[in-house]
Every structure is written in structure tokens, then in C-alpha cells.
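Data availability (excerpt). The following record was deposited with the supplementary files.
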Amino acid sequence: MIFTFKVLNKEVIVYLAFGKVGNLEKALNTIGQVMKNLWFQIIKFKEIYSLNHLLHSIIIATEKFLQKQSISRNLHVELLLPLAGTRQIGEAISKLSPEKGELVVLVFVGIGVNINYLSRVAENLMNDISFIKEEQLKFINKECLLCKKVSEKMLNATLGRSIHERLEKNVLMLSALTYMKM
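Predicted structure:
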């Protein structure tokens, strides 16, 4: 799946792939800036509530990174913080790092890069780590980290047509609150 966004007048391309990694050690050692203006991250699938949660977290982390207001100096690490709803880098890494055999989401973020270039780099890296793609998995992981932080009181105070809509609104809010200094 490929998404494009404008973040602070910069073209941001996000390439997502869902599946399992055959060579997890190699994949974990590859995380980071893989090319100029192109970052790679691998995230435990079950800790992402929804596609909106994932994309929202990527956008706000990228915005903070481009504004030089990020918590981490590295975009691939910054992506984890709003996703986990924490300002603690170690906590986000430990909660979102996958174990062998787990379903994962591979995230590639390119800023000001050509979409074909990003796709080629992503496909080559997926081959290198023996990635086994699966069709887009059904999101709505009610057991994810941020869902556990949503209280009954928060849920009842949120407008929405369904429990999913109210829960997702709270997850997105908690994700955004990562950057609020209290």
C-alpha cells in the first residue's frame, strides 16, 4: 500500500507491507535511514489499532521531525513514539519490536523521493529479509497498547456511531498527546 501526503510543503510517501519476516535479525539490523531521505521501520502488527492509527502516527511524527521538534533525532525511531503513545524511546521500542514469527508492518517513509525509487528500495529490502507478504490484514486490534489506556469514562465521553469509532478517536488523541508537554 502506498500513501502520499504533504507535510510542511514536503511530499511524503509512505509504503506499507504486511506479513512475516523470514530473517528477523537481518530486518532489525536494517532499521533506520536506508537511503538519503528514506527510512525503514518494522512494527508489531498487533500493537496498531487501525490503519488510521498507523497513518496518523506517521504523519505527526514526520511533521515533528521536519520541524526539528522531534523527541528522537531519527525519523524511524520517532515513528514509534506516537504509535505507542509515549515519549520514552526505550518503552516504544520494546513494545513495538516484533518477535520471530509475528505479523508485522514494514513502514518505509520517503521525503521528497520518487515513488518508483522508494518502491524499488522497499521491494529489494523485502527480498533481502525474506519477507512473506500477506494481503492487507483486517485492522481493529482492540488489544493494542493504546486501547488499554482508554478508560470506560473516556469512551463514554466520546461521540461516535460505534464502539470502534469512539475507541479510534481516543487512540488517535492519545497518539497526538505524545507531543504535549505537561
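Summary of structural features: The CA atoms of residues 155 and 163 lie 8 Å apart.
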